[in-house]
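Weekly sync, protein design subgroup
Attendees: M.S., D.O., the rotation student, P.L. (late)

Item 1: inverse folding check
M.S. brought a backbone from last month's batch and wanted to see whether the design step gives back something sensible before we order anything. D.O. pointed out we never logged the input encoding, so this time it goes straight into the notes. Structure tokens as presented (235 positions):
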């Protein structure tokens, strides 16, 4: 939970107030913060825990040991764990494919062993070579991830691509793994892509139906606007 625009900062108390409002609306899960990189987020999470928020409180973490240790310290039971997957992102970070796979396995395994439910988030997944993306997602599942997120980090997808990729990931994951779509509105296509991704759920599978939607409330995004319902989830 947080603002995504330079100069806009929510205090831990303000985040708690927002969490209460979301709880009143019946929101089932809240991504409460990125505690390893923000002491304020860690404080906000602790305030929400003490307040008895009914929604699942999810953390956010990179596929880094220290990030997972912070989730454990805060006694979080759920977290998104992210890692870059596209060639352009890996080059920018100076990470090989083998190294990112190792980091994913280690982080997800550590979280699983600590009793944390993991949704694996493939950063820039829509610009990742398809066979490698499949390897990434299956590695995350093998390590213990329970959910997968299809991520259009820079809003590069058109609707047809969002539908196709979501269908592919659903097929790789199998009918019992929830698959999310996370999009951005850099090119004005976020709404169309989210709707198209719904169509990408595995055809003919009675086990897959829309289970919940992850959304930004009053979105404040780093680039133009993110779709207000930026993540749609399929089960």
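Designed sequence read out in the meeting:
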């Amino acid at each position: 939970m947080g603002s995504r625009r330079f100069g806009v900062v929510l205090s831990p108390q303000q985040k708690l107030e927002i969490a209460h409002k979301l709880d009143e609306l019946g929101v089932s899960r809240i991504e409460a913060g990125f505690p390893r990189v923000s002491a304020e987020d860690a404080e906000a999470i602790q305030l929400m825990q003490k307040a008895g928020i009914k929604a699942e409180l999810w953390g956010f973490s990179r596929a880094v040991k220290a990030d997972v240790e912070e989730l454990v310290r805060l006694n979080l039971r759920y977290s998104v764990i992210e890692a870059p997957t596209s060639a352009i992102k890996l080059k920018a970070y100076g990470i090989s494919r083998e190294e990112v796979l190792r980091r994913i396995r280690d982080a997800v395994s550590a979280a699983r062993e600590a009793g944390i439910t993991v949704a694996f988030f493939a950063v820039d997944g829509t610009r990742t070579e398809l066979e490698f993306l499949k390897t990434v997602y299956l590695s995350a599942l093998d390590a213990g991830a329970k959910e997968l997120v299809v991520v259009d980090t820079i809003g590069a997808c058109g609707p047809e691509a969002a539908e196709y990729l979501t269908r592919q990931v659903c097929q790789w994951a199998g009918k019992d793994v929830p698959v999310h779509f996370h999009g951005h509105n850099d090119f004005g296509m976020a709404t169309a892509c989210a709707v198209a991704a719904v169509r990408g759920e595995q055809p003919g599978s009675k086990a897959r139906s829309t289970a919940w939607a992850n959304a930004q409330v009053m979105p404040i995004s780093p680039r133009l606007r993110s779709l207000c319902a930026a993540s749609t989830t399929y089960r």
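Discussion: Residues 205-214, 223-235 have pLDDT under 50 and may be disordered. The first strand starts at residue 29 and ends at 33.
Action: P.L. to compare against the previous round before Friday.
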